[in-house]
Design brief:
The structure is a single chain. Helix content is 39%, strand content 21%. It has 8 helices and 11 strands. Strands 6, 7, 8, 9 and 10 form a 5-stranded antiparallel beta sheet that branches. A 4-stranded antiparallel beta sheet has the order 1-2-4-3. The two termini are 52 Å apart. The mean pLDDT is 89.
Amino acid sequence: MLVKQDQISPCEVELEIEVDAEKVSSAYDDVYKELGKSVTVPGFRKGKAPRVVLETFLDKDVVRQRVADKLVFEAYEDALNETKLDPFRPADVELLHLEPNEPMRFKVKVPLAPVVELGEYVGLEVERKVRSVTDEDVQAEIDRLIDETTPYEPVTDRGVQEGDIVDVELRREDEPEGRPQRVQARIGDNLPDFDKGILGMSVGEERSIQVTYPEDYPDEDLRGQTITLVTKLHGVRSRTLPELTDEWVKQIFNQGESEGERSESDRIDSVEKLKSRIRSELEKIAHAEADETVRAEIANKVIAGSKVSFPEAIVEEAVDSQLQELTETLRRRDLTLAD
């Protein structure tokens, strides 16, 4: 067997392989014997017809393909062992010549693993910028903490006000047999018509509220429509946000603790200590973000100076995969690529 090797790219090698005529003849004999076992030839028992007779009964293209399959696989494996190549994907085979009693020649394009030529990574300069923590940042965290720790309480002695959480049952007036929807909503976060219509309602009260949906409403079926919603109020909850005081801080951070359970430096029992702790945590986050940004910028610089070579097979597989996904998506919508 002769093997000619040609490096056509950093990650693709073309092998031209020649199998000697003796092996080709032997392969033809084997294939005729194998196929002859399943062919009925008049005057011969199954599997006993000589090759010269079988040649008139069997399709020469079928025989040729079986011979090629038999020889190519074995010769390709031998060529890989000889050249020490390690294919990254299945190879493309091009049959050049195959005739009985003559050497067989074929080409194989062998895809190798992607090759990365790493760019410069020593001595790269990147500026480390740490975001400053402002008083506004600290106050925003305090506001978030107050919001998260202040519960809503049931309201029974007044009507609905701005900022309340309401528990309502909704039904479209034009769909009297439709199933009502039970929802909870914060007054001030909904369509203006709905919020305006529900203000002042008491628990147990029912109203018909006319709502006009804007043209950019997420539900396309409701855009631009004016609908009357039969609304029944089942519950109201409200809350009053506390003032930021030392007492509130102690209640939130030290509730249930006995005296001396934590050291003085660890205890958060005043507004100033709370602000100091929040600022410290935000500064840690800012430094961590700065480190992450530096790592990302260094990586981007290395990538920008690097070169990656990969076999065409990877690109073809990616394109085929995306085409299959697109075709399936279109099929579910009763469309085709031609549309």
